[in-house]
Here is the input.
Amino acid sequence: MRKLGLTFIAICMAMVMITGCHQTKESAPVVDSDSIMQEEIVYEADSTVYGTCGEATAMHTLQLITDGGDTLMYTMMVEEDADIQGGLLVGDRMAVIGKNTQEGLVATQVVNLTTLMGKWTSLDKNFEIMEGGVVESNVTAESNPWTSWKILNGKLVFNADTFIINMLGADSLYIENSNGIFAYKRQK
Here is the structure.
């Protein structure tokens, strides 16, 4: 009788789980073939093009040799206020957000990844942005150190924290999110 009661409870729980899964696709749990509950994760598509700054880069033109080996020419119009962070140096790694217009490709945002990498410090953080999306924290007492980074649609993402890059220079980095603006100085 006890085994029958446990079976009945298990069937009721399965029915509740099945009928409770009529949510939107982004948040609906998915049951795999082994009946293990897993949450479906939906990732935002990245429109960033990655590559190296080419030799044909000029005042209003960016030549980008993509990671796939293609050569793209982007126009950067001053009137449209292209957001260029970290400068345009031949051979540097770049992350470019652009749009396709009747005149061709137009860069709306450029982040120099070579300039972004390195050691940065502030009053409460001391970290190094490294190749391969790795962040190494140099503050042992930090409660939530950043361990990873990436550029996603022109924004800088540390772990799950997303920031707008307000300014990236040779010795300073200003980033902003809903918690405020954060200033970092390059550490030598």
Observations:
- The CA atoms of residues 53 and 64 lie 5 Å apart.
- The chain has a mean pLDDT of 81.
